[in-house]
Design brief:
Shape: elongated
Bound molecules: heme C
CATH architecture: Orthogonal Bundle
Number of helices: 6
Helix content: 40-55%
Largest sheet: 2 strands, antiparallel
Strand order of the largest sheet: 1-2
Number of domains: 1
């Protein structure tokens, strides 16, 4: 049984090396989904279609976030979406329509390329939300 044990530990070592060498792990849509449920679903709905429990109490109806790409001629406008979310994080809570999302800016920064080929250090949680919203885009 000894050779098996040895080869097992060689494998474990190799797997560890590979894990250690992978570049910075980028957030995924599933990470963003959790953040979305926590911070956004109350207005935008848990399916992101704009029918959250708080939607009717708002002066401006929250838009259907699954149609952003379609509304933009089929292209997901990552920069615009990012700055919209970022804008929310920066508003001071001055009324019921002004949620505070400062916590989304906490944590580490990850390199994000929004399509211009330039990697911009961006808060991980914002990138996670962006990935999630992009992942729920309707194709038609
Ligand atoms: C208190 C209700 C409310 C919450 C909470 C909320 N939103 Fe919104 N959102 C709105 C409303 C209303 C609009 C449309 C008017 C505007 O742009 O302010 C909007 C617009 C947007 C847009 C622009 C959509 C478009 O078609 O361009 C995005 C993207 C967005 N929200 C993402 C988010 C994300 C991500 C969160 C959670 C971090 C969030 N929202 C939380 C109410 C909300």
């Amino acid at each position: 049984m000894r050779p098996t044990l040895i080869s097992l530990s060689v494998w474990a070592f190799a797997a560890g090396l590979i894990a250690a060498c992978t570049p910075e792990e980028m957030p995924e849509a599933s990470d963003g989904r959790a953040l979305f449920m926590e911070n956004c679903a109350v207005c935008h709905g848990s399916d992101a279609k704009g029918e959250g429990p708080m939607a009717r109490a708002l002066e401006n109806a929250p838009p259907d976030l699954t149609l952003i790409a379609l509304r933009n001629g089929g292209t997901f406008p990552a920069v615009n979406v990012l700055s919209t979310i970022d804008g929310y994080t920066k508003t001071t809570p001055s009324g019921p329509n002004m949620p505070e999302f400062g916590a989304l800016l906490e944590g580490d920064l990850v390199p994000l390329d929004t399509g211009d080929g330039i990697l911009t250090p961006t808060p991980r949680k914002l990138v996670a939300l962006l990935e999630y919203i992009e992942s729920v885009q309707a194709s038609r």
